[in-house]
Every structure is written in structure tokens, then in C-alpha cells.
Write a structure and sequence with these properties.
With about 350 residues, the chain is α+β, with helices and mostly antiparallel strands. The chain is about 40% helix and about 10% strand. It is built from 10 helices and 9 strands. The strands form 3 sheets. The protein has a 5-stranded antiparallel β-sheet, with helices on both faces. Helix 4 packs parallel to helix 9 and helix 6 runs antiparallel to helix 8. The longest helix has 24 residues. The radius of gyration is 19 Å and the shape is globular.
């Protein structure tokens, strides 16, 4: 429970005080996870229990790890049908912590990351959990973003086309070798961007391990977490990404056998159908969305290795091997759009 180079007790105490929070006794900080996404810390004093998040220590790309984005969305969603952790404090510019940082209340529950974690549930409970997750995503996409104060959060028009360009640019920043198929996939996606799309709040990274599930009820989602890639955009990008995460190669990205790739959850096709049923939405040019999701995951996998090579993995096991998944995701994307 010692200080971490990315978050010290002294700086965090100052941040909490600046946000009107009284710290009782000593602050105790422990790293929960790091290296793949934002660094996440368990923080306690003698009365309170919080979670603090900040970007990784190095190898960052310009649009990733956006703490202000997380704060804006979770603050706005409080009180809606989308469960989020109550917000506590933010260091927007990193003037106190040394990097942008948010603090939220700790939500006690289950985080199902690995296939071993999934063993706590029966098959019927896994099915109930899946239904709850899809309904939670549907609830998110049904939120009136103007009504919750997010009307100026972004430009939903043309979102899918900008995503193609964004992940093409990100590839140029994080690639550790040349993969010509990436350019081929980008070109094919650019040629078939949907001309029309719905607009909604999108999470950008939705799957079971980015939620907290009630300990006594797999069918109850107590909080959706990891909002760093949230935006106003095309909700089908969220749905497709949820399905593409089902590929077994995703284990290389996380460094362990991911719960979301388990065959105890429905297939990607069944997930897509469940989402369409829950939302009443047509899936449109679904092959485009699958191709875009594969491009995104391929670039993210490459970026994890890029960051590890730059010394920013925080010791996360296997981060230097995540890029081994990139070619598989890109190939899957090409299969979808070809």
C-alpha cells in the first residue's frame, strides 16, 4: 500500500482537499491494474474507499486516456438508467497529480476479467449476465444526450468516417513494424462509410470486464467503468466492438484468457442479434462496423506493445506481446469488408 510513481498520497490528499473532500487518517494507495489502459488505484483512508485513475506513465497517443472525457460522461450519466460510479474529484490538467486524474467512489461488486472468474457462475447465470449487459448497452444508447448536458460533448455527424481516419493516424503513431494490410483495410473502410447513422453516447470499450456486477446477482450491473474512449457517435460502433472482442486472439491483448472470449457467452452473431432485439435497431452495413472494430482493436494491440517498448507498461505481464494479435484483427477486418 505504498506510494506509486504515478500517484502519491501527498498529491492525492491535496487533490481531494481541493475538491472539498475531508481525508480521515492516512491515505493508502494500491495499484489495481495498469499497462493496458489507464492506471487504476484502490484508495482508502480510515472512513472512505475510492478509485483513482490516471493515464499510463509513457508511450501515450494523443486521443487516448482522456480523463476529462471519463469525468464528463460519468457525471452526466448519474441518475440515468446507466449505472456509474459517483464522481468525487478531478485534476483536469495534472497540476496536482502530475497527470490528469479522476477519483470516484468505490463500487463493491464482481469484476469478471478472466475465464477463471467466470467459473463463479452457472451457465444460466452467465446467460442472465449477458442479457443484462446487452440491455445496459441499449440503455446507454437510448439516453438523450442533450437532456443530460452532453449536447456539446462532440460531433456525432460523420463519426464512423472520423473513426477510420483516427485509427489510421493512431497506427502511424504506434506501429512497431510495417503491415501493408492495415492500409488496405483503411482504404476499404473509407470507401464504404455509411452515409447515415444514429447518434448516441457511445462507450467505446464495452464488454463484461468494463463493468462491475452485483455480487449476489449476475443479472445486475452496478456500474459501467472505463469511459476514456466515450464519445457522441454511431452506436453500432459500440455493438460491433462488443462482438469483435469475442475473438480468442483478444487473450493476447489482455495477457490472459479473457472472460468475454469464453464459449459460455453467446457467439458474436447471437450477440449482434440480441443487441438488435434490445434496441429495435437495424444493424445497417454490419460488415463495415465489424471491419472498423477489428481495425481499432488491431491498433490498440499494437499500441500496448508500443507503450511497453517505451517503458510505459507499468510492469503489465505480456504487454510486449500484445502486438502479436494485430495481424489477426486486421485479417478479420479484411474478411468482413471483402
Amino acid at each position: 500500500m505504498a506510494d506509486h510513481p504515478g500517484l502519491t498520497a501527498a498529491s492525492l490528499r491535496k487533490l481531494l482537499a481541493a475538491n472539498g473532500v475531508d481525508v480521515v487518517g492516512d491515505l493508502r494507495i494500491a495499484l489495481i491494474s495498469g499497462g493496458r489502459s489507464n492506471l487504476t488505484f484502490d484508495v482508502r483512508d480510515d472512513e472512505h474507499h475510492w478509485v483513482a485513475r490516471r493515464p499510463p506513465m509513457g508511450g501515450l497517443t494523443p486521443s487516448a486516456h482522456d480523463m476529462e472525457r471519463e469525468w464528463a460522461v460519468t457525471s452526466a450519466l448519474t441518475g440515468t438508467d446507466v449505472p456509474v460510479a459517483p464522481t468525487v474529484a478531478i485534476d483536469r490538467a495534472g497540476e496536482v497529480i502530475g497527470a490528469p486524474c479522476t477519483v470516484v467512489d468505490f463500487v463493491d461488486g464482481l469484476v469478471i476479467r478472466s475465464t477463471d472468474d467466470l467459473d463463479v457462475w452457472t451457465d444460466d447465470q452467465v446467460a442472465a449476465n449477458f442479457t443484462a449487459l446487452v440491455q445496459t448497452l441499449a440503455n446507454l444508447h437510448a439516453v438523450d444526450y442533450y437532456a443530460v448536458g452532453l449536447g456539446d460533448f462532440g460531433r456525432p455527424e460523420g463519426f464512423a468516417g472520423r473513426q477510420v481516419k483516427l485509427w489510421a493516424r493512431q497506427w502511424g503513431l504506434v506501429k512497431t513494424r510495417d503491415l501493408p494490410d492495415v492500409d488496405t483495410l483503411v482504404a476499404k473502410l473509407s470507401d464504404r462509410v455509411p452515409s447515415q447513422a444514429r447518434a448516441a453516447i457511445v462507450h467505446g470499450d464495452f464488454r463484461v470486464d468494463n463493468t462491475i456486477i452485483a455480487r449476489d446477482d449476475p443479472a445486475k450491473v452496478d456500474a459501467v467503468v472505463d469511459w476514456e474512449m466515450a464519445a457522441l457517435g454511431d452506436p453500432l460502433t459500440d455493438a460491433a466492438l462488443m462482438c469483435v472482442y469475442r475473438q480468442p486472439v483478444f487473450a493476447k491483448v489482455l495477457g490472459f484468457e479473457a472472460a468475454w472470449t469464453s464459449d459460455r457467452y453467446p457467439s458474436a452473431d447471437d450477440m449482434a442479434q440480441a443487441y438488435a432485439t434490445a434496441t429495435g435497431m437495424d444493424l445497417g452495413d454490419w460488415d463495415f462496423y465489424l471491419g472498423l472494430a477489428n481495425l481499432k482493436l488491431g491498433v490498440i494491440a499494437e499500441g500496448i506493445t508500443h507503450r511497453a517498448l517505451a517503458g510505459g507498461s507499468s510492469g503489465a505481464e505480456g504487454a510486449e506481446k500484445a502486438a502479436e494479435a494485430t495481424a489477426t484483427f486486421i485479417a478479420s477486418g479484411l474478411d468482413a469488408v471483402s
